[in-house]
Here is the input.
Amino acid sequence: MKEETIINFTHHQAAHCENGVVSNLMKHNGFSVSEPMVFGIGSGLLFCYIPFLKVNHAPVITYRAMPGHIFKKFAKRTGIKMKREKFSNPKEAQSKLDENLERNNPVGLQVGVYNLLYFPDEYRFHFNAHNMVVYGKQDGRYLISDPVMEEVTSLSEKELEKVRFAKGAFAPKGHMYYPISFPEKLELEKAIVSGIKDTCKTMLAPIPIVGVKGIKTIANLIRKWPKKKGIKTANHYLGQVVRMQEEIGTGGGGFRYIYAAFLQESGKLLGNENLTELAKEMTEIGDLWRDFAVEASRIYKNRSRSDVGQSENYNQVANQLDHIADLEKVFFKKLKKAI
Amino acid sequence: MKKEEVPQDKSNLESANFRELCYAIDENGEYTTANSTGWEPKTVALNNAIDEINERIEDAKKRVLEGKTSPIEYYMELHKMDVGILASYVGLWQWRVKRHFKPSVFKKLKTNTLQKYAEVFEISVDELKTVK
Here is the structure.
């Protein structure tokens, strides 16, 4: 490939990597779509407890849809066609990437975080569903627009290969994707309605680990942790719940604020006052998730503190979650009716 | 969350010189974004998780020195891995990796196998035989 290829690509920082890549690639192709819009249409909001799985030796909760799903649903609902490729051979993965860059086509890549050298050490865990855009190559280094970063950055060929072929759960296998065709006019209205309906359905699903019921399940587990696991492990587990909720990329409050921003924008676009009102309500629910994080952090601040009071504190944060679950149940029923 | 409430606490992000993006409402109730340098409740959670990992590393090291496990387990913890992740990196079944934790089995491992582990941990085979 040529010595130097730099595609004229504008980097916009986003809260979350997947929405961010989609939003940035859309903007690059002349469609102004905000991050919350991608998140809402792609039905990104979720609550799901994943039983039997442990990450960092603690239970896993997710506040968002499975990696890749937001993108898939967004594309389907707006009529965009995507090209996706996975590779078994790293050399082939690199040459396909180079080909795209030469054709002036910035591409999205799924990568592992552990070897992403520009991340702070403390954030480098074996998480394989991070997303970025590659928009050029200069002096043998790939030019990277990582949506969660404030500025663009770069990686050497070897460094990029390593993150593209990270191993473990959700191994990216060189996963590369980019839009190949767009509808003549982007019609967001219908897509918004399907996105909202889908989210309401999942959040109200009669499954004990998903949505509102999933929040109740976690609240019950939290009550049991101190006795069943001992305070130290319970503190570790509770810390992980908060980390998943407030991890970089959630935009705060377990994605509830991004979702509220989506509802507000949709309210204006559809001329639907109800959505605007519901956006306010979702913001308040987001605040309650933040309050829960604050209370939880008071518990685990001292990792091995194990007096009698701790058990009672666990009950209290569990009650907070129960309250949030009740509010979200009412909320998503109203939202379903509002569209 | 209001824009002026977006937390600006000290955090581990500082070392990489970046601020994350949060969503918040402005004085007119309109959604906007604001950068955050960090938030204490999650910094505490992250620091605890890191302490937990460091304890696991120390514990593995101790057991290597006591002859209770092989250095592979130590390096696995050092790289924040678990058996599943390590097994997929070296391309072996989990039960085989676990077996290689036994000092007696580890001693008899072929250079080829040791080399696989060494590559994953980015160290030499000699280094793999010891703990730092």
User: Anything to note?
Assistant: The radius of gyration of chain B is 21 Å. The longest strand of chain B covers residues 20-25. The domain at 42-128 of chain B is CATH 1.10.260 (434 Repressor (Amino-terminal Domain)). The beta strands of chain B are 20-25, 31-36.
